[in-house]
Specification:
The protein contains 21 helices and no strands. The chain is globular, with a radius of gyration of 22 Å. The relative contact order is 0.10.
Amino acid sequence: MAGFGLGAGVLTPGSRKILEHWRSASVPEWEMLWADSARRLALRAAWQQSLLPHWWAAAADAQALQVVADTQALLAEAESLPPALLAAALQVQETSLVKPAAMLPAALMSKAANPMPLDMEADTFAKAIEDRDLETLAPLLFSMAEDDNARRVVLHRLAQRLADDNHAQGLRTILYGQWQGAAADLPARPFSLGALALLQSHWQLPSGVAVVVPEGRASRDPAVDKPLLHALRERDLPAFMGRIRALGDQPLDAIRQLFLTVTLMIIEGGGQEPLPLLRLYVWLGSLLALPHRSLRQARKVLFSAAATTFGFAGWQRQEDWPHFSMLAAYRERAAIEPVPEPFSWQGALYAAASGSGPQWWLQMAERGVAQTGLPGFWSLWRTARRAGSLTGGAALAWIHPLVIIRLFPG
């Protein structure tokens, strides 16, 4: 089946019809459907509606929510994939989703509330989230999603509400980031239903560990000057947190450094369990794409992320790959080297150096589909693919393809 199930009660007749068409289509018909912008948008909306009962059923289960996040990451990147590959990937994702909820709350079928001034809507929205008041939230969201400015308020408030929670390596923010990429531009109803499912997950998941945010910067001393990677590898907490405090006046730059540090840790072979480490990488990448309302809030996010990152401290570099300096040297000459096997560290660097990066990412996507249902694959694929823009330039963009090779060696 090339798509999700057709039995979900939130499907509109139009969504059901286009899903049935997609489900029975041949490869040329998929390509024709996908080439039509209006039908492509209708398909994307229908997939979100069809995913909703699975998401609702998964709300308290981190493992099941990882599959939802991966599915949202796939849908966010749908327009960058050939239709046949997208269809095959959706089939694989569907087999991994939990059984859909048999019953959904009646509030999800409610009508949009009457519009109010935007500041009143924002206040009501925030209070309803705190009160877990689905009956107020659903009609309010259906209304706010009709207005571009109100929709932006919804997205910003959701991002800020979830960003600093570190449960399951930032799973709430990972879900938000993948869903936002897949659904931010959809019609009001499928957009709102996804926002409600996100909040249902937020309410049902355990809270993360609270982190104290220290005031002020660390004093300058030699320990503070130790690079984050060295402090993590040596499990040197004073040096690590001192460095973070020294960077605390520029929290987004500090998060960016944490992201690059975790990238290098993965390349060195650090971490025992791949999925938590993968989630940490995706969480940090997602945080760099979020709006942060204030310095205080960004610092709170930074120290939550730093405390979670230190939980992975202490490892010995694996010797199966060269040191970073040798990787960088190979990258400089890769275009004149013999063509390597694509799914090796040499292959990843060769693709970047030879200008065949887009084709390499598609090959990696095909490999992920063939290996069927790898937890975290699509979330990592999406984050690593766009990580160069998240870290502010191309100078170190070449290291991120190595992450997916290291975590999914095949």
